[in-house]
Amino acid sequence: MAIGEAERLKRLVFLGTGTSQGVPIIGCSCQVCRSDDPRDQRLRTSVMMESDATRLVVDTGPDFRMQMLREGVTKLDGVVYTHEHKDHLAGMDDVRPFNYMQKATMPLHASARVEEALRRDFHYAFEEGRHGGVPNVKILPIEDHGTVQVGQLSLEAVPVTHGKLPIHGFVAGDLAYITDASALPESTMARLQGVKVLILNALRPKPHYSHFNLEEALEVAAQVGAKQTWFTHLSHLMGTHSSRDAALPTGVNLAHDGLVLTREGERWVTSTSAWWNTKRS
Ligand SMILES: [Zn+2]
Ligand SMILES: [Zn+2]
Ligand SMILES: [Zn+2]
Fold first, then answer.
1. What distance in angstroms lies between residue 209's CA and the mean position of ligand 1's atoms?
2. Which of 89, 97, 125, 191 is the most buried (most CB within 10 A)?
3. Cα of 263 to ligand 3 centre, how many Å?
4. 90 CA to middle of ligand 3, Å?
5. Ligand showing the shortest atom-to-Cα distance for residue 161
6. Ligand 2 center to 252 CA (angstroms)
7. Over the stretch 22-61, which tens digit does the pLDDT of each residue have?
8. What domains can be seen in the chain, in order of their start residue?
9. Ligand 3 centre and the CA of 180: distance in Å?
10. Is 76:105 a contact under the CB 8 Å cutoff?
11. How far is the centre of ligand 1, averaged over its atoms, from the C-alpha of 57 (Å)?
């Protein structure tokens, strides 16, 4: 392959599929939080996307370190941010092992508002004369409908509304990843037409001011009409994975941590990660 030639997205791993507190929630004794089905144990929402040459993660939440450890990730080419909430940002400090292993600066693709939050929350990484023990990062801008280039993979950043906050989702070829949405602008809905895989947030059955509830997410899923729709950013209020998943329409499913989507020709097939497989055996 020629240098600079774009590659197709080949594999996506769900690193985390839980809402901001994760599932189980500290101190909660509900049926979901006590479930011993590993699909009911959800780290904070993030995915890893891979082509042949490139691997990126979308967001670095508080569980980023554990997600990298459990999936055995030893190389990472960049981070792409949806927005600045702590459940999507808090783990950025843990890019340091990749700095050391790769002897390289980690590119962080971020909107202006996410950049402001990164510079505030991780100020020590941006100070003059910073010492070697802090994250070595550079921030690259994300614009609405702009291209985000990480290694050989390019994504399109699509505008998403999250309560009052304008944030981003990402489209990679025929797959779209949208989390923390409460509404999708027309331009984004238009862009989603024809995708084969839609990953979308669905918080819980009851309405919420800044997240799609189940009914709203199902409505968007129907409008987009992707072959596969996977719900993420799930609360314990969604019920157990097994009961809720069984009640969803054909082609719509709950994602779970360790779920893997792999491209085979023009099809996307479902499997589970090496970490998940050891957990299940
Ligand atoms: Zn979130
Ligand atoms: Zn609970
Ligand atoms: Zn959020």
1. 13
2. 89
3. 29
4. 12
5. 3
6. 23
7. 999 999 999 999 999 999 999 999 999 999 999 999 999 9
8. 11-280 (3.60.15.10)
9. 5
10. no
11. 15
CA 131 to ligand 1 center in whole angstroms: 31
Stretch 124-143: mean pLDDT: 93
From residue 154, give the alpha-carbon distance in Å to each of 2, 140, 211: 15, 14, 27
Residue with tokens 């949405």: 181
Instruction: Say if residues 245 and 254 touch (Cβ distance below 8 Å).
Output: yes
Output the CA 21–ligand 3 centroid distance in Å.
11
Question: How many angstroms is it from 234 CA to the middle of ligand 3?
Answer: 12
Mean per-residue pLDDT of the chain: 96
CA of 114 to the centre of ligand 2 (A): 30
Q: pTM for the whole thing?
A: 0.97
